[in-house]
Task: inverse folding
C-alpha cells in the first residue's frame, strides 16, 4: 500500500499518463482536529514543495490521511501512532 511519500504517490498519479487523476481523491484531517476529515478530488489539487493547494488554500502534506481510488481501494495511508 505505501510506496514512498505521499507527495511521490500524488505526483505519480497526476503526471503519469497511464493514470487518471479523476479516479482518485485524498482524505485529509481538516484543521488538525482528530476525526474531522474531508475528501478532496485529486484533480482539484495542485502540488507544491511542502504544501498542496486547493484553490487559494495552502495545506501541508502531513494532513493527508489517505489517497483512495474512487472504487474504495486505498493506495496510500498515513502511519498512525495512536
Result:
Amino acid at each position: 500500500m505505501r510506496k514512498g511519500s505521499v507527495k511521490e504517490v500524488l505526483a505519480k498519479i497526476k503526471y503519469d499518463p497511464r493514470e487518471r487523476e479523476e479516479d482518485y481523491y485524498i482524505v485529509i484531517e481538516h484543521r488538525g482536529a482528530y476525526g474531522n476529515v474531508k475528501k478532496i478530488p485529486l484533480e482539484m489539487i495542485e502540488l507544491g514543495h511542502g504544501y498542496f493547494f486547493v484553490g487559494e488554500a495552502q495545506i501541508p502534506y502531513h494532513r493527508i490521511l489517505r489517497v483512495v481510488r474512487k472504487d474504495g481501494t486505498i493506495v496510500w495511508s498515513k502511519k498512525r501512532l495512536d
Remarks:
- The longest strand covers residues 24-29.
- The radius of gyration is 12 Å.
- The beta strands are 24-29, 37-41, 45-47, 51-54, 57-60, 64-69, 74-77.
- Residues 6-15 form the longest helix (10 residues).
